[in-house]
Recover the amino acids of this structure.
């Protein structure tokens, strides 16, 4: 029996190339798997990936950084649909749309309905709620009773969707707020520490770069509740590039966008679309896949394996 | 009599020529960040960035939709006061309108 949460919770990023990240719970460890690698080498993923993370599709964006965001989302979907072992569900970590317009949500829904991984769970980005969340909640509010946060279980893993893009304070980071944190405490109460937890939200739940607001001001209060669990995987989007951190039994991972890259923290005036060479663009867009597999030292424990895959 | 006629004439005339104030959003800042205006002034915000921004009053007095590049939003400040606002997409961006 290995009770070292740091071992159970360790995260390995197998590839940083791609279209998305695939997560597999492997050896008690959530591991992201490059989709391209997964497609090319079916045996590369330890076990079938449990879920897929798509982020920052920004439907409605049409500037030079990517004039065809619908096209790159389609490429991403094709990549997923070509996977031999498809994950059971998809998480979309926000910025589904660019300007929160109903027609953008319509286009996004139509495109995402092409996914052969049909179970879709979402959390909004700040681009989805510029109307304070009305249109987003009409489309996606049901699982959360229009609060934006909710949880569910799949294959023994407890998934928690948090919302940190409403009620910004001036100059501030993302925020969860008292109500949501109270709900989280209740949601986790009595849950065994051995159950793998996946938390997903749009903005990073740790401070990646404070001057650009890349963080969540009150996330520490959530982690105080999560720290007792042996395997916690925290997934975000928002920054359109992969950044990861492992802290004890908690693994933090941000996914690529399917629309356009953003600059590295602090490079340039702000976190806007980054124009890159057309040939380079698909190598900067992608998904994450995650699988869970028994931990070698403790088969009763599941660990997540995360894989990032680019669309080309 | 003449006074009444004059009043009627003023009432029919276009609104007094308070200069509209323009604030641009550029490089993730409101510029100027703070302005003082007379009440009745219409403020126009224009987004020059390739990234969308919003203009949202902290007290809920005004709220723009997401403004894409070159989109504008107008609001007329009828009541004196200090109005603080931010961009809800980039909350580092803040501004203040002081209405006299």
């Amino acid at each position: 029996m290995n009770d070292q949460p740091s071992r159970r919770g360790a995260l390995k990023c197998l590839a940083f190339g791609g279209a998305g990240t695939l997560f597999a719970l492997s050896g008690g460890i959530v591991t992201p798997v490059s989709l391209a690698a997964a497609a090319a080498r079916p045996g590369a993923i330890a076990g079938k990936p449990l879920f897929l993370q798509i982020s920052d599709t920004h439907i409605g964006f049409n500037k030079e950084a990517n004039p065809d965001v619908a096209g790159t989302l389609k490429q991403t979907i094709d990549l997923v649909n070509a996977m031999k072992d498809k994950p059971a569900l998809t998480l979309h970590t926000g910025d589904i749309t660019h300007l929160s317009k109903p027609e953008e949500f319509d286009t996004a829904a139509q495109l995402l309905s092409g996914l052969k991984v049909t179970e879709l769970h979402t959390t909004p980005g700040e681009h989805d709620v510029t109307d304070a969340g009305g249109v987003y909640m009409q489309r996606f509010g049901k699982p959360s009773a229009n609060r934006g946060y909710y949880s569910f279980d799949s294959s023994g893993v407890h998934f928690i969707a948090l919302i940190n893009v409403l009620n910004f304070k001036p100059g501030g980071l993302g925020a969860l707020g008292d109500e949501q944190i109270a709900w989280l405490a209740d949601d986790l109460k009595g849950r065994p520490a051995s159950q793998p937890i996946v938390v997903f939200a749009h903005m990073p739940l740790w401070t990646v770069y404070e001057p650009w607001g890349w963080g969540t001001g009150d996330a520490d209060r959530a982690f105080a509740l999560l720290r007792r669990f042996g395997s916690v995987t925290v997934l975000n989007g928002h920054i359109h590039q992969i950044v990861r951190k492992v802290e004890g039994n908690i693994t933090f991972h941000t996914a690529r966008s399917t629309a356009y890259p953003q600059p590295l923290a602090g490079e340039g005036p702000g976190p806007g679309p980054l124009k890159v060479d057309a040939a380079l663009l698909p190598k900067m867009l992608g998904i994450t896949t995650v699988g869970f597999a028994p931990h070698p030292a403790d088969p009763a424990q599941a660990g997540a394996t995360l894989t990032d895959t680019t669309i080309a | 009599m003449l006074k009444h006629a004059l009043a009627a004439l003023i009432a029919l005339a276009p609104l007094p020529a308070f200069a509209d104030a323009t604030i641009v959003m550029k490089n993730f800042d409101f510029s100027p960040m703070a302005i003082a205006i007379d009440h009745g002034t219409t403020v126009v915000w224009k987004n020059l960035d390739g990234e969308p921004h919003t203009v949202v009053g902290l007290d809920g007095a005004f709220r723009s939709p997401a403004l894409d590049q070159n989109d504008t939003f107008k609001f007329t400040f009828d009541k004196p006061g200090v109005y603080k606002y931010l961009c809800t997409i980039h909350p580092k961006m803040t501004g203040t309108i002081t209405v006299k």
In short: The first strand of chain A starts at residue 20 and ends at 30. Chain A has one domain: 8-296. The first helix of chain A runs from residue 5 to 8.
